[in-house]
Amino acid sequence: MLLGTPLVAGQSRNQEDEGIMILGILVLLLVWLALTRTLAFPFAMAGFLSSVIVAVFWRAIMPEAPSSMYKLFKHPIRFFQFVLTLAKRFVISTLHTTWLILKGGEEGRLMALPIRVQDPLARFILLNSITLTPSTISLLVEEDLLYIHWLQASGGHGDWREIKESLEARLHRLFEEGHSDRP
């Protein structure tokens, strides 16, 4: 099945999920081959087996992920916009955190922030994206609250809301239904 094409009569959601799992294995294998920079049989076989293990493990812990993964491929421009937003937030947050540390007087704070994305994969990506940005660490998603540890200037304000809101808005647009099909 080609990505972006609707299910054909008689084709089950299970077949679509298996296609996405195979695509995931191929992507992981290509990343493995690019990182090892060799096509030698033992390395390629290790990469293939590792890719299969990761894909099977992921499917076991996140059974609804294949349909969520489909959304990433269905809207590649939206996904690319999310990656660009994450890169921008990473650079801005790195500069901000560096300044805080060099200036001194930084303090940590725990925050409970409401989140609006409902898709489990979108929540997983949001949690890890926030952790990737310097000065923030995601701790837990519970119900509709995201708990983060955030580094700020002593007695000051920071950019945690901008980090969370900018990433969440892109993920919401990518994963949640009800948006138009334009990129």
Q: Keywords, please?
A:
globular, alpha+beta, 6 helices, disordered C terminus, 14% strand, 183 residues, 3-stranded antiparallel sheet
Descriptive overview:
This protein has 183 residues and is of the alpha+beta class. The chain folds into 2 domains: 61 residues; 101 residues, no CATH class. Helix content is 61%, strand content 14%. It has a 3-stranded antiparallel sheet with strand order 1-3-2. Strand 2 and strand 3 form a beta hairpin. Helix 1 packs across helix 3. It is globular, with a radius of gyration of 19 Å. The N terminus and C terminus are likely disordered.
Compile the SSE list and pairings.
Elements: H1 13-36, H2 41-61, H3 65-74, H4 76-103, E1 106-114, H5 120-132, E2 136-142, E3 145-153, H6 160-175
End-to-end gap: 22 Å
Strand content: 5-15%
Shape: globular
Strand and helix order: HHHHEHEEH
Rg over CA atoms: 19 Å
Mean pLDDT: 80
- Assembly state here? single chain
The description of the largest β-sheet is: 3 strands, antiparallel
Q: How many structural domains can be distinguished in the coordinates?
A: 2
Identify low-pLDDT runs. Answer: 1-10, 179-183
Give a count of the beta strands, DSSP E runs of length 2 or more.
Answer: 3
* SS-derived structural category: alpha+beta
DSSP helical segment count: 6
Strand order of the largest sheet: 1-3-2
Sum this structure up briefly.
The chain has six helices and three strands, in the order H-H-H-H-E-H-E-E-H. It is of the alpha+beta class.
